[in-house]
């Protein structure tokens, strides 16, 4: 990597961070009044867009429901109309009979309507059976006892409460977590189904998912109950070995360059050290009820974020409550390191408040940097409840006493994460200090959940719609993947493509999670869906359209709420970059034509579909063979003028263009010209040079920015290609890429774009770009052109280049 390219890399990273911080300080704007659309089911909450704006979405009528529910509603509406007609005819019939008039014609019409009503009623009954919810998802965020009332279950499932109670009494309910049986208990006193939820923590979500259904045989696992009387044995408060995990991921503290060779690594960090500038980190560790003796262990996960010196440049040591613990950890480069510190746990504060300090060691004049990722602590914990519940792990054999409860309505569950047993032999009694304690016999190595019923948590309950995505009968030439937030966009695009492409199928992101990742948010569920479609569907898709912006901040740590359809990353020499190719199971050239519409609200998407319809319904004119080529000034990164001259020659002499305009820096006033709408009244615009996510050109040149792109009012919509760095990077939280701004401008800009999501090599992109242009202007769609170009250039260019270049917008667009 030459100096100029490295400069491009650092500039892109710094500008991304600075822009994000500016966005945080930008005041939000929202309309003072709004026109209510009676066809919409509801308005969502306000959500942040880029550039500080707020918006909220309208879910189109019925589109937030499964297709079978929409069909049922449609038939019911028709039935009501027919019944109204029947009532009118009956009145006419009665009137004629009263006047002794002939009613034969009305008799025939009424008989015909009766038969029609019978058919519609039968169809409604069939649809109702199909629409009956058979399963629910219980979604939890915390560890401990959770419960759902029978009345809520009955309402969600469309059943009678008595039916659910009967099934519960017979043990005929099924609860699973990642396909494994989970135990449940029907508590008659509260009329609730209770279960013990475990924590779940991935890079994408902290939400666990339990699948509940009526009936089932193999996996229904009601809790067993002990029948013995409460124990009269004396118990001890025996400490148990517990593990606590401490992790914070504050605003803006992410780094994709420190993990550049690990595409699935966690790139959000807690804090950092920087030699000479920030030489210590202080964190507070809340450690409840430590025993006064025993051996504890800290595991502190760190990662280097500099690689500036020869040899091992990183050295970090730890102090706990003012005392050094363990030995320092020494390592080099961007690798991960774990500082392990064993210590006598009498060092822990009995009140639970502990101060951990990390310090770095470095040679004077050097400036190594290290990230703190997370901290784990193993320690011996006294069995004292916190907030009236505690999960005891690997309890020692004997009689155990647990204290710290406010009331005596306490339940004890043995093996809460496995085949659970409700311990009716637990003795509950006052502890002598105004509270209560529980005593029960325990086998060695067993977990127990001891909790007051009053602190039972309520999970979020959602229906599990039958999407049948595993079925071999599925057929799709063109597949739309979208969250239900964007139902309007998906419906509009599907209608357009059914007229031109054949079998179009929309699959909701939520259904993909439910079918391919056990209800958990996981982008690789999309890969598994496509693998299933390729192997088993009757007709598998050749085009995949992704609807929704993705973000590096899928957990919404920064509060922008703009990660709708997730991203997966790919490695590059400088930093991780998003790759929709890899998201769909490819590794450079997936077997699909791929496009993404990085919208943040449904209105944007519908406006783009309207723009697309206007583009495709308007015959091309002279602009079909007119192009504007923009080039940066030559430097160590590439001879951009020469590259553009070669492209101009290719367009004119090989591909039949009428004329090609050149706009070269510093020979021309590039920015002054490029931000004018008239400059975009051509069929093709290409840029070759330096750039970043929100602009082309460097920080002083700014040939065109996202703000400029929003303001364009051109009526001819060109295809735009960005042979530069990161101009298609839609992953920055709270911000939009230049390519996205051009494509989503409803009044101008570009109809579709080819752009990279990360840093780019100019030598490689010339090879890829030439193959792409040859295909695009010989009749291929933009999606087919880049798909074929990636296949043709395999082995000629670096593999990461194929993974980071992607289509922004509809991939079946043909150049004008």
Layout: helices, strands, pairs:
Elements: H1 3-25, E1 40-43, E2 47-48, E3 54-55, E4 58-60, H2 67-98, H3 104-131, E5 135-140, E6 144-149, H4 150-157, H5 161-169, E7 173-177, E8 180-181, E9 184-187, E10 192-197, E11 208-214, E12 224-225, E13 240-246, E14 271-274, E15 280-286, E16 295-304, E17 314-320, E18 323-331, E19 336-344, E20 353-360, E21 369-381, E22 389-395, E23 398-405, E24 410-414, E25 421-422, E26 427-430, E27 436-442, E28 446-452, E29 460-463, E30 478-482, H6 487-498, E31 504-508, H7 509-516, H8 524-536, E32 543-547, E33 569-570, E34 577-578, H9 580-583, E35 593-597, H10 602-617, E36 626-631, H11 640-653, E37 659-664, H12 670-674, E38 684-688, E39 691-692, E40 695-696, E41 704-705, H13 706-711, E42 719-723, H14 738-744, E43 752-756, H15 762-776, H16 782-792, H17 799-804, E44 805-808
Helix pairs in contact: 2-3, 6-10, 7-8, 11-15, 15-16
Task: Give me some keywords for this one.
alpha+beta; Jelly Rolls; 5 domains; disordered N terminus
Question: What's the shape?
Answer: flat
| CATH fold title of the largest domain | Rossmann fold
Question: Which CATH-level-2 architecture of the largest domain?
Answer: 3-Layer(aba) Sandwich
Beta-strand percent range: 25-35%
CATH class of the largest domain: Alpha Beta
Give a description of the structure:
With 816 residues, the chain is an alpha+beta fold. The protein folds into five domains: 67-131; 135-225, no CATH class; 241-381, Jelly Rolls (Sandwich); 466-583, Rossmann fold; 615-808, 3-Layer(aba) Sandwich (Rossmann fold). The chain contains 17 helices and 44 strands. The strands form twelve sheets. It has a six-stranded mixed beta sheet, with helices on both faces. A hairpin with a 6-residue loop joins strand 33 (569-570) and strand 34. The radius of gyration is 32 Å and the shape is flat. The model is unreliable at 1-64 (pLDDT under 50).
């Amino acid at each position: 990597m030459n100096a100029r390219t490295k400069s491009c890399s650092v500039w892109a990273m710094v500008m991304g961070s600075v822009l994000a911080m500016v966005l945080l300080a930008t005041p939000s704007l929202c309309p003072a009044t709004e026109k209510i659309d009676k066809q919409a089911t509801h308005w969502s909450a306000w959500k942040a867009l880029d550039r500080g704006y707020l918006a909220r979405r309208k879910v189109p009528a019925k589109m937030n429901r499964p297709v079978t529910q929409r069909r049922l509603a449609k038939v019911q509406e028709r039935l009501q109309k027919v019944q109204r007609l029947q009532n009118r005819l009956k009145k006419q019939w009665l009137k004629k009979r009263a006047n002794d008039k002939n009613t034969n014609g009305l008799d025939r019409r009424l008989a015909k309507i009766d038969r029609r009503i019978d058919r519609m009623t039968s169809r409604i009954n069939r649809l109702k059976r199909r629409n009956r919810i058979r399963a629910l998802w219980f979604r939890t965020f915390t560890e401990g006892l959770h419960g759902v009332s029978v009345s809520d279950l009955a309402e969600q499932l469309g059943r009678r409460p008595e039916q659910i109670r009967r099934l519960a009494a017979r043990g005929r309910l099924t609860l699973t977590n990642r396909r494994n049986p989970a135990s449940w208990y029907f508590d008659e006193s509260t009329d609730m189904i209770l279960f013990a939820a475990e924590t779940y923590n991935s890079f994408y979500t902290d939400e666990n998912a339990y699948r509940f259904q009526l009936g089932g045989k193999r996996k229904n696992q009601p809790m067993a109950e002990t029948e013995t009387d409460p124990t009269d044995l004396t118990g001890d408060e025996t400490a148990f070995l517990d593990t606590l995990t401490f992790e914070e991921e504050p605003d803006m503290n992410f780094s994709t360059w420190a993990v550049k060779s690990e595409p699935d690594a966690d790139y959000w960090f807690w804090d950092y050290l920087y030699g000479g500038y920030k030489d210590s980190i202080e964190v507070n560790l809340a450690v409840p009820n430590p025993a006064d003796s025993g051996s504890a262990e800290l595991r502190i996960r760190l990662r280097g974020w500099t690689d500036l010196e020869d040899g091992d440049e990183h050295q970090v040591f730890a102090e706990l409550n003012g005392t050094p613990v363990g030995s320092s950890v020494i390592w080099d480069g961007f690798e991960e390191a774990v500082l392990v510190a064993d210590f006598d746990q009498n060092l822990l504060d009995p009140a639970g408040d502990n101060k951990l300090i990390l310090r770095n060691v470095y040679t004077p004049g050097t400036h190594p940097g290290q990230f703190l990722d997370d901290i784990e602590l193993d320690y011996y914990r006294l069995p004292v409840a916190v907030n009236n519940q505690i999960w005891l792990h690997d309890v020692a054999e004997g009689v155990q006493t647990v204290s710290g409860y406010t009331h005596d309505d306490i339940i004890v569950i043995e093996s809460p994460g496995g085949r659970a047993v409700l311990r009716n032999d637990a003795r509950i009694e006052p502890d002598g200090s105004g509270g209560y304690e529980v005593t029960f016999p325990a086998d060695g190595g067993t977990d127990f959940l001891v909790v007051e019923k009053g602190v039972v948590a309520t999970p979020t309950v959602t229906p599990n719609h039958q999407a049948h995505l595993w079925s071999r009968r599925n057929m799709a030439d063109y597949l739309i993947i979208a969250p239900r937030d964007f139902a309007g966009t998906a419906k509009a695009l599907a209608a357009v493509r059914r007229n031109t492409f054949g079998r179009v199928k929309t699959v909701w992101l939520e259904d993909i999670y439910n079918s391919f990742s056990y209800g958990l948010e996981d982008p690789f569920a999309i890969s598994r869906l496509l693998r299933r479609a390729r192997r088993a569907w009757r007709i598998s898709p050749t085009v995949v359209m992704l609807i929704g912006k993705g973000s590096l901040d899928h957990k919404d740590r920064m509060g922008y709420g703009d990660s709708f359809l997730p991203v997966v990353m790919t490695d590059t020499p400088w930093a991780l970059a998003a790759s929709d190719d890899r998201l769909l199971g490819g590794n450079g050239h997936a077997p699909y034509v791929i496009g993404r519409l990085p919208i943040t609200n449904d209105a944007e998407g519908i406006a783009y579909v309207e723009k697309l319809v206007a583009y495709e319904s308007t015959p091309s004119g002279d602009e079909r063979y007119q192009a504007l080529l923009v080039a940066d000034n030559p430097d160590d990164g590439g001879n951009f003028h020469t590259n553009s001259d070669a492209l101009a020659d290719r367009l004119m002499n090989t591909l039949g263009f009428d004329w090609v305009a050149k706009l070269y820096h510093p020979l021309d006033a590039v920015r002054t010209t490029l931000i004018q709408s008239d400059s975009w009244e051509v069929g093709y615009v290409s840029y070759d040079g330096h750039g970043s996510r929100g602009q082309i050109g460097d920080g002083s040149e700014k040939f065109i920015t996202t703000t400029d792109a929003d303001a364009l009012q051109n009526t001819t919509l060109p295809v735009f290609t960005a042979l530069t760095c990161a101009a298609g990077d839609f992953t920055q939280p709270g911000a939009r890429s230049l390519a996205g701004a051009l494509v989503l401008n409803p009044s101008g800009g570009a109809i579709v774009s080819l752009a990279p999501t990360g840093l780019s090599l100019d030598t490689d992109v010339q090879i890829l770009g030439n193959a792409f242009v040859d295909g695009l202007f010989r009749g291929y769609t933009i999606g087919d052109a880049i798909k074929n170009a990636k296949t043709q250039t395999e082995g000629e260019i670096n593999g990461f280049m194929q993974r980071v270049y992607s289509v922004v917008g509809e991939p079946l667009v043909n150049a004008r």
